[in-house]
Amino acid sequence: MASISLEGLSKQYGQFRALERLDFVAQQGEFVTILGPSGSGKTTVLSLIAGLTEPTTGRIVLGGRDVTATRPAKRNIGLVFQSYALFPHMSVFDNVAFPLKVRGVPAEDARRRVRDALDLVRLRGFEARRPTQLSGGQQQRVAFARAIVFQPDILLLDEPLAALDRMLREQLQVELKQLQRKLGITTILVTHDQEEALSLSDRVLVLADGAVQQIAEPLEAYTRPANQFVAGFLGTTNCLDGEAIRHGAGNWVIRLRSGEELPYRASDEPSGSLVTISIRPEHVRVLGPNSERGVPATVIESVYLGQTVRYHVETVHGTPLIAACMQTGRPYPPGASVRLDWDSEAVWLIPEGGTSRAKAQPAAPELLRV
Ligand SMILES: Nc1ncnc2c1ncn2[C@@H]1O[C@H](COP(=O)(O)OP(=O)(O)OP(=O)(O)O)[C@@H](O)[C@H]1O
Ligand SMILES: [Mg+2]
User: Fold this and answer.
1) 213 CA to middle of ligand 1, Å?
2) What are phi and psi of 243, to 5 degrees?
3) If you take atom 12 of ligand 1, which residue's CA is the nearest one?
4) Which ligand lies nearest the alpha carbon of 35?
5) Could you tell me how many helices (H) and strands (E) the chain has, helices first?
6) Could you say which ligand is closest to the alpha carbon of residue 206?
7) Measuring CA to CA, how many Å separate 148 from each of 52, 77, 153, 171, 313?
8) Nearest atom of ligand 1 to the alpha carbon of 82
9) Which residues line ligand 1 (CB under 6 A)?
10) Cα(367) to centroid of ligand 2, in Å?
11) What residue segments make up the domains of the chain, in order of their start?
């Protein structure tokens, strides 16, 4: 087991900057997910750590050892990629035993270790099969076994579950988490599945265009996104732009573009007058038109999703919002008059520039002047 320390790491392909200066430390035993859209530099980070690509600047320190100039094979890293990349002509046993053979582990010892690894991924009895005689999920489990059989210090996983269907993916997510916990191995998982990132990891690192947007625990990144990109990428949100106007000590009003005014209290003052707030759809309640609380609005579209209903609504001032409500009874149809309500804690003032941590406590919407 080892910590991973990336110091001023960057990667340039010709004129193209694939990774901007990255400083990051993963603690020993930590499970970190790198999340970002296609082309954001996720695989680049893994390739740099694994030594498959050379950095343009910076250092890579694994378990206190500077490995920036160390050959990949000497970094003691287990790798799993999206395509299972098993050797098709070899049996399951030979596939898993391969890294041990390369390292010159004696046959008897190797047999025991392969058995243990296959036990861990619940594939005992499959030793003689070829990869083509396995399901996708089983092949991926063989790939996991092969990645951990030589007791690597670090596990790097590049979208290992992306090719699997949803049910199998969820099952393997649970297995992967248990495996990682059991082995206590420092793990970096690349994914563009936000649910996977939120459910599996101790911390998420959100990348966009080669630049870090936020590094935080899943709950923190979801509820307190550092900027608009993170807010929108980790789930759906309602981002509203407005102007912060001071109304006496600690009392502010955010005047939305639509003209609606949202009073709020701030322990830290907004750093600029233009602000963005984020309200998650699941925090917006859709109430009947005669409710005493909330903002008058009209349902534009209601999408029935079984457990929940997703409403596209518009306030009387024309502000579009999305609300996700637990399904009880018949959904409000398009055109229905409703009222929208949410708790003050549901509103997050997105820090300007993505770094400040202004703590805003916006007032509940019944205080909206409409
Ligand atoms: N060898 C290379 N030469 C030039 N550009 C490259 C090379 N490898 C990657 N890139 C570019 O660097 C950027 C980041 O690539 P990377 O593979 O890290 O993205 P990613 O986040 O893993 O994307 P995906 O989700 O599609 O796998 C991309 O724009 C890609 O085109
Ligand atoms: Mg990739």
Assistant:
1) 18
2) -115, 130
3) 18
4) 1
5) 8, 21
6) 1
7) 19, 9, 9, 19, 50
8) 27
9) 13, 16, 18, 36, 38-44, 192
10) 47
11) 4-228, 236-367
- Ligand 1, atom 31, lies closest to the CA of 39
2.60.120.510, 3.30.420.40, 3.20.20.150, 2.40.50.140: CATH of 236-367: 2.40.50.140
Interatomic CA distance for residues 98 and 107, integer angstroms? 11
At the topology level, CATH places domain 4-228 in Rossmann fold (3.40.50)
Q: Which ligand 1 atom sits nearest the alpha carbon of residue 47? A: 18
Q: Pull the structure tokens for residue 324.
A: 């996700």
77: which strand partners? 154
**Counting atoms of ligand 1 from 1, which one is nearest the CA of 14?**
4
Ligand index nearest the alpha carbon of residue 36: 1
Centre of ligand 2 from the C-alpha of residue 22, in Å: 17
Instruction: Give the number of residues written for the chain.
Output: 370
Assign 3-class secondary structure to 114-168: HHHHHHHCCCCCCCCCCHHHCCHHHHHHHHHHHHHCCCCCEEEEECCCCCCCHHH
CA 362 to chain centre: 27
pLDDT, tens digit only, all 370 positions of the chain: 799 999 999 999 999 999 999 999 999 999 999 999 999 999 999 999 999 999 999 999 999 999 999 999 899 999 998 776 899 999 999 999 999 999 999 999 999 999 999 998 889 999 999 999 998 889 989 999 999 999 999 999 999 888 788 888 888 899 899 989 998 999 999 998 888 999 899 999 999 999 999 999 999 999 889 999 999 899 889 988 888 888 877 777 778 887 888 766 655 566 667 888 888 999 999 999 999 888 899 999 999 988 899 999 999 888 899 999 987 788 999 999 999 988 877 778 887 654 333 333 344 443 343 3
